[in-house]
């Protein structure tokens, strides 16, 4: 596959580059999972630094008792991107993924799509990259130990991203299912990380400078109680990502400096939903742009209330789009009607019948 397709104008394309699950895995293997997450983190940071150029709105949800389906759109004035994503915690009991997704990048001038990609694997990669990027600014300097509570599908990526971006070497893992922790330790056996499987959440956070919570149950849970969190810790709260789903006791929030992606969305879906709308929070784009500080003291408790935001997916799709000419791992998707005369769409249908 040559890269000339990426040098054409969208109006000159007869197909859309499509990254299937198989090709996404090929792309990740081609450059390495940790390199991919570092690359995505760089693209996220770059896009957050030009935050004001983006259209921003909370994602558009369709809720059901079993879970949620969401659309996450954004645009920087030149390119439009969106992700379709679901979150259904009960799926695992039926052998299905909790989270699946796909995404599209399009040229805003013509409306033609530039990329169509799976985003189940890509969402896991960008979520972990986003967590580690925030921690670069918020975690104690020289952090080496991370507790990870919830050892499901996202946990491996989180551990590897923190190793790559922060130099974490020790993982203290806890899950209600010991099998999940054993799976995590097995997958990370040759990663350079030392994984200790813990019997309780309290045991997991002992000695950890960073605490990551990434549980799946759609409920108001208290994974961390106030007495579990001492001074100087950075909390990476990933699992609370829809209305009625939390992981932290409210008192932890009251003692923490809270950093969020987009307050209007986080207040609906994150730990922030436990607090009044006017409770002070800091937007991460301001930290990345250098207009406000991240961590300011050794004893400070910092909390990244992560829910995921469309600009992160936009950045991840941009990264994949720019990676494809180097790897060639994509397919030509026949998605665009391309009649000889743009006004004669029906004529194209007639001619195809004759050709058949």
| Number of domain units | 2
Cross-sheet strand order for the largest sheet: 9-8-7-10-12-16-14-15
Which value, in Å, is the CA radius of gyration?
21 Å
Q: And the CATH topology of the largest domain?
A: Rossmann fold
The global form is: globular
The overall pLDDT average reads: 93
In terms of DSSP E residues, the strand content is 15-25%
Number of beta-strand segments: 17
| CATH class categorisation of the largest domain | Alpha Beta
Structural class: alpha/beta
CATH architecture of the largest domain: 3-Layer(aba) Sandwich
Distance between the termini: 28 Å
Give the helix proportion (percent range): 25-40%
List low-pLDDT spans. Answer: none
Tally the helices: 11
What is the N-to-C order of secondary-structure elements (H for helix, E for strand)? EHHEEEEEHEHEHEHEEEEHEHEHEHEH
CATH homologous superfamily of the largest domain?
A: NAD(P)-binding Rossmann-like Domain
Largest sheet: 8 strands, parallel
InterPro entries: NAD(P)-bd_dom_sf, ODC_Mu_crystall, ODC_N
Protein name: Ornithine cyclodeaminase
Family: Belongs to the ornithine cyclodeaminase/mu-crystallin family.
Organism: Roseibium aggregatum
